[in-house]
Amino acid sequence: MAWYALQHKPAQAARALANLENQGIECFFPEIDVETIQQGKRRMRREPLFRGYLFINLELTDPVWHKLRSTRGVVRVVSFGNRPAPIADEVIEGIREGLESAAEAGGIHKGDKLEILEGPFRGLNAVFQEYDGETRAMVLIDFLQKQHRVSMDLDQVRPG
């Protein structure tokens, strides 16, 4: 079996995936979490790693090949010289490993403990609450027997 790339119709990745999987085809649709800023707030959004494409794992002799072009959501099989272009298993495995390591790196999430490195609260511990624009974070600091919400630059804190 080998991996092949399929081009799907715009905004129809989910439809193509569902229809391909209903035919018993192993599919891989790599997605990543992307931070965007909307109305001054950071938001996480899932986006395809390769916009417009997904991968299938099939034998060239599989009888399902003649159905691929008529599968709803699918535009075409990526081919060279009228032959589907195979993708090495190592490439797909590398993409999967990259996605896993990116998910582990992730960034700062609500509830993460932080150490304050600079400013008047240097040396204190804080708890991350949310992003406050592109370069700032809203944190909770225990100070004078009370929790205070403070906005500070992201370069003033580190996970700890």
UniProtKB/TrEMBL annotation:
Keywords: Transcription, Transcription antitermination, Transcription regulation. Transmembrane segments: none annotated. CDD domains: KOW_NusG, NGN_SP_RfaH. Residues 1-99 form the NusG-like N-terminal domain. It comes from the Bacteria. One of its GO terms (cellular component) is cytosol. Signal peptide: none annotated. GO terms for biological process: DNA-templated transcription elongation; transcription antitermination. PANTHER family: RHO-INTERACTING TRANSCRIPTION TERMINATION FACTOR NUSG, TRANSCRIPTION ANTITERMINATION PROTEIN RFAH. This is Transcription/translation regulatory transformer protein RfaH. It comes from Halovibrio salipaludis. The gene is rfaH.
